[in-house]
Design a protein that fits this description.
528 residues, alpha+beta, Rossmann fold, Tumour Suppressor Smad4, 3 domains, twelve-stranded antiparallel β-sheet, 43% helix, 20% strand, elongated
Length: 528
């Protein structure tokens, strides 16, 4: 009989005994993940918080919160608020309304299309909620996250990024009330609301990536501000009004300049008001007004303010800018966005001295407060002027930009002694902070520098890309883009003349053209 001896591989002493030892049941169990346990704890806490809110009795809110929640359906509350802010006439409030609305447009699909279908959480059981609080019609969609809370947080965050605290705080309080009302009326668990708030706030904050919020008003450095005596009734103030500036209004509602005049007459009854007629010589009228004024006030757009600055410099009087045009870039640059702001700045009695840009030719000198430009920009200004009476300034600007950038040709120039083919060129009075073809804000108005941005090109111009870059506001995306800061710039045109746009007004200058600065030359009334 043959015996088969099995061979056991060698191992350490006791290995066979260990192999034969029974393995505890715990060692056979798979490793438990902690996430289900954490989610169960959060779910219990969420339900406990919901029960506490459902059992709470808040006198006075039993009637208000359910109706506030219903008014927020489909964003009606927030779009109504956006409309009111837009009609207020202040650019900061219009920007706030637009940013808040864009935040809702981003947050709402993220919550209702993605979030709710991804989590599919059921709505709370409303046994503990008093019947008078329950919505007229219980929602049938999934609970997590809360769409109402996301819209509320998105709008409130967008408004907070642009509007002053006096406006942002009530909007934020209303948004918080809407979010709480979603729990109070039994529509959502607190966790649903918190998740919606987070998504909405992130959506509104994310708009900064493509549309940076406007920074605080440009400031004037130390030593550039001085006190001046002012009269509460406006004696010594001569206000020149360009009634053709901005929106001319209608028979029912006055235009921007008309409303500014109403504010001046009400707040400064002793001030002299001079209305420019269509056939008047603007420089002559402003010069005569500045000669007899202690304070020269100008109501109109940037072109009128430019002429007022020339008169104020010639007669050494301070300038009070009163917004009354379409853009009002200079007034808004240092915080005067409405006629009421101008009145407050006058009564504040603080003068700041700001830089004035200069474009000098062999026989003349022209000034600019905001920007000077040449190349295709002058064609854009010409086309806009021809179109704006028919379709308005903003549509005219967009149409003029597209038509010009599709057809314009580079200009041969000597730029500081170097031959260039210049397609677009922008020269700012002081450094502009935002990128793009037409930057709109500055941090300082007295830095003594010029902000030069130029697009030079070869024989071929990438027109489609250029149109997209200019309209999107990102000029650095274009090939041939250059930007630098300088105290001066010298140009010479082989063609014999250079068309230059200054604060929206176009003129032709012959010979060598020099851009420079008059540092802290102009005295203006500053907001508090």
């Amino acid at each position: 009989m043959r015996v088969n001896h099995s061979r056991v591989p060698a191992g350490p002493p006791g290995a066979a005994h260990a192999a034969s030892r029974p393995v505890p049941a715990a060692e056979h169990r798979p490793r438990r993940h902690r996430w289900p346990w954490v989610l169960r704890r959060l779910g219990r806490a969420d339900r406990w918080a919901f029960d506490r809110v459902a059992a709470a009795h808040l006198p006075g809110l039993e009637y208000v919160l359910p109706r506030l929640s219903r008014f927020a359906d489909n964003g009606v509350l927030w779009f109504t608020t956006a409309g009111v802010l837009g009609l207020a006439g202040r650019p900061a409030l219009r920007r706030a309304a637009l940013r808040g609305s864009i935040g809702i447009a981003v947050a709402s699909p993220a919550v209702n299309i993605i979030g709710k279908h991804a989590f599919r959480r059921k709505r709370p059981v409303v046994d503990l909620v008093p019947p008078m609080r329950i919505r007229w019609k219980l929602p049938t969609s999934h609970a997590f996250p809360s769409g109402h809370s996301a819209s509320a947080a998105a709008f409130a965050t967008g408004v907070a990024l642009e509007a002053p605290a006096a406006v942002a705080a009530p909007v934020a309080a209303t948004a918080a009330a809407v979010a709480f009302a979603r729990v109070y009326t039994g529509a959502h668990y607190p966790g649903d609301v918190l998740a919606g708030i987070g998504i909405g706030a992130l959506a509104a904050a994310g708009t900064r990536l493509v549309w940076p919020p406007r920074p605080p008003a440009a400031r004037i450095g130390p030593g550039g501000v001085e006190d001046v005596r002012v009269d509460a009734e406006g004696r010594g103030v001569v206000a020149v009004v360009n009634t053709e500036s901005g929106d001319r209004g209608s028979e029912v509602l006055p235009g921007a300049a008309g409303m500014a005049v109403d504010v001046l007459e009400r707040e400064l009854p002793a001030a002299e008001i001079v209305r420019l007629e269509p056939d008047d010589d603007v420089d002559k009228v402003l010069g005569e007004a500045a000669a007899r004024a202690e304070v020269l006030a100008v109501v109109g757009g940037d072109g009128t303010v430019n002429a007022g600055a020339r008169a104020a410099l010639a007669h050494d009087v301070p300038l009070l800018t009163v917004p009354g045009g379409t853009f009002d870039h200079f007034a808004r640059a240092y915080g005067i966005e409405s006629p009421a702001d101008a009145i407050a700045a006058y009564r504040n009695g603080r003068l700041g001295r700001v830089d004035v840009g200069s474009v000098q030719g062999p026989d003349e000198e022209q000034l600019f407060l905001n920007t000077a430009s040449f190349g295709a920009y002058t064609e854009i200004v010409d086309r806009r002027a021809r179109l704006e009476r028919r379709i308005g300034k903003w549509p005219a600007l967009a149409v003029a930009a597209v038509r010009t950038l599709r057809r314009s040709r580079p200009v041969e120039l000597d730029v500081d002694g170097h031959r260039r083919r210049v397609w677009l060129a922008f020269v700012g009075n002081c450094a502009y902070g935002s990128p793009g073809a037409a930057p709109s804000w500055r941090r300082r108005l007295d830095d003594g520098r010029l902000d030069v941005r130029m697009v030079t090109t070869g024989r071929r111009v990438p027109r489609a890309r250029a149109v997209a870059a200019v309209l999107a506001g990102h000029l650095p995306l274009m090939p041939g883009y250059r930007a630098w800061r300088a105290a001066g710039l010298e140009l010479w045109s082989p063609a014999g003349g250079l068309r230059v746009a200054r604060d929206g007004e176009v003129s032709t200058m012959a010979g060598t053209v020099r851009f420079g600065k008059h540092p802290r030359a102009l005295a203006v009334f500053c907001p508090a």
